[in-house]
Amino acid sequence: MSDTTQLVQLSAAEQAAAIKSGDTSSRELVEAHLAVIEAAEPQINAFLQVSGDEALAQADAFDAKHAKGETEGLPELAGVPIAIKDMIVTKGIVTTAASKILEGWVPPYDATVIEKLKAAGMPLLGKTNLDEFAQGSSTEHSAYGPTHNPWDTTRVPGGSGGGSASAVASFEAPLALGTDTGGSIRQPGSLTGTVGVKPTYGGVSRFGAIAMASSLDQIGPVARTVLDSALLQEVIGGYDERDSTSIPMPVPPMAAAAREGAKRDLHGVKVGLIKELGGDGYQPGVQARFEEAVQLLQDMGAEVIEVSCPRLEYALGAYYIIMPSEVSSNLARYDGMRYGLRVMPADGVPQTAANMMAATREAGFGDEVKRRIILGTYALSAGYYDAWYGSAQKVRTLVIEDFNKAFEQVDVLVSPTSPSTAFKLGEKMDDPLAMYMNDIATIPANLAGTPAMSIPAGLSDDGLPVGFQLIAPQKRDDLLYKPAAALEAALEERWNGPIWRSMNASWLKNLAK
Question: What subunit structure does UniProt give (predicted)?
Fold first, then answer.
């Protein structure tokens, strides 16, 4: 099997099976995806760094072991290449968080998740674009230019992990890693027709993830299928003593749950419709696809119950106090003194450390990062801490209580992932509040630390993807995968195959000529 367009359109699980059967090799997969990256990048800009030589070397090392029969016992995805959001450090590969303040920085160590991928024999294709320091909802706030949505390159792919989502949606990579602080894996998943998962907080090590908001950030999978996501989460999950927030618990059996769900029998599964995340405010096509998906769940035997989480209406406001406060604290380390960019004061300005720090941060940070640092510094300042940050944390506790009560009645909660399909590039750049509203349905899961997933629910009336969100109790990530896989199978039947196969990928057509 050597046809590039055929190889890259296989799911990650199918690519892994092809390696195991001898129909292809890890090197062939890497070469095929590098060819797509070269063809697609002028239109997509999903990658900040392409590590082709490193990926080929990693693939060759895996293939050599495979030929000797030394790969038994490795995870199912062994040999399958992957892209990495540039918020996760990679030894020897430039890592910038899409910011000028880290331009050219080469980490001296790997994040825990990268160590696990390398141990699994999964070659790293490169680092993907994002909103600077993961702060944004559209991947327009990158210091290195916006990423484009492969479904319509005049539109955003969502954010902050639009690079990872677009890379997977455009067949530049079969899998990717993202980080999710308020929906930055799930919201791009919704807008690009990919599967995005935010694991339970602490279920995947954050060691080596550049900190944005430490109590909210979580690394998770980006894929095209529910099974691929499950397989990848099983690779990267597990306890890590280097991460003080890591949970000492076994990795849940997510792939088994996904395979069980593919049988499309949901009898005994209770699904909760979140009253506060429905109704007005959603694009008609988004609401229509959501209601159709809920009906499919019922048709497969699930019991659907409306539940109320009344404090969720305050979640967005609480998040936009907690998150900037933690941003303000975490980004204080970028001062030009120790690593990264250093800008000296202009001539005539005293050459002091304070002035150098000010000049460095002015030149190194973009507008959105500065906005959040200022907001967070204000919320943490004397006289305002209790009124703003303290109150937001109390709201967070109420959101957790709402979820706990809901999960006494149901196994999973569901809602649309994003209020709309992908909007035009530049459409909301001058209205930060409108941009922030895109995360209204995804933020609660981050505040509560619960696992959540977005899967494609079909296409809206405008021909663009719509996302369907599932939320499970803390530490029960496996509960997401059975109904998600069942719904995926039912939707594929309705849409005559996965929606990602219907995308007009002109770069693939050019490669096939």
Answer: Heterotrimer of A, B and C subunits.
